[in-house]
Amino acid sequence: MAALSKVAMVSAVALLGWAWAYQATRPPPPAILGAPGGLPIASPRVQLKDGRHLAYMEAGVPKENARYKAIFVHGFASTKESGFSELVEELGICMLFFDRAGYGDNDANPKRCLKSDATDVEELADALQLGDKFYLVDTSMGGYIAWSCLNYIPHRLAGVALVVPAVNYWWPLPDNMLRSVYGKLDSRDQRTFWIAHHTPSLFHAWLTQRWFPVSPIVRGERDAFTDMDWEILTKLWRKQRESGQLDPSKATQQGIYESLCRDVTILFSTWEFDPTEIKNPFPGGDGVVSIWQGYEDKIVQFEVQRHVARKLPWVRYHEHPEAGHALSDMDGVGDEIISELLLGEALRGLPLQSEALQDE
């Protein structure tokens, strides 16, 4: 009888474990925007070929009168409600901001992948009649969408600026570099990124469990930022709160699975292309692709950006010696980025080290 009791107990524990694992791989469905009694839709939207909707916001000069048309891709745990440069009016720019799939007022995409994020950008540009070519500005997590666009829709791009773009530690990096940069990460970040890559179906469960500490980077905790970053971001958040622009819950209002989890698992997946083998989309020199990086960035490490830039000599690499991950929010940096993207030449008003690649 005792033996049977032990068997029953083990079986019960195993059954509970199986039930937990099964439930963990089946995250809650996203909230349906615009449904009766559900979340309201607060932005104009366009319908894509697969029936999903993308929410957008226009800033600067109306596109009918604009000299330049640019699409801005937001970062992690963020939305389209962003600003970037003071030059939009002066240079005649129509700046288009949009919520990425699963974020803000956008529909979730259960088939979301690297390629679908690129085709979302292309279909948005077509729906809003931006023309054959448009400029692209991508920050932080939005950086992987930039690489995807450079790979899948290079013929639609007039220029691309990747600002502190997120990196994948499962790209084909040199072993010594991988050990160095991955080893610099907080152990909580290492565990979280490993799970995102190796067991993506369990990532939502990992992110929502309370037994073990989760990545400070994914959580957006103070430890993930430099002192300068935190000072810049604190001032920015205060200003946004005072203007009523900041709503921290807006980004993930459909649930973290369709927004944060999909971001992280796609970034750290095994990509179907190698960014360092992308062909120059502007062999005639009629466009600019640039990477803008902070040397002190604790979220995205400069060593990987330098490696990518060395492999792609047609990419213009800029490194700010004192900046962290909040590089684009530093005074004047947004103007520098936009100036080089559109005019081919930065304003040169900041201590940017474009020669960093030659220093090694």
Automatic annotation (TrEMBL):
Organism superkingdom: Eukaryota
InterPro entries: AB_hydrolase_1, AB_hydrolase_fold
Endpoints of the signal sequence: 1-24
Entry keyword annotation includes Protein biosynthesis: no
Alphabetical keyword list: Signal
Domain AB hydrolase-1: 71-327
Signal is among the record's keywords: yes
Taxonomic placement: Eukaryota, Viridiplantae, Streptophyta, Embryophyta, Tracheophyta
Protein name, as recorded: AB hydrolase-1 domain-containing protein
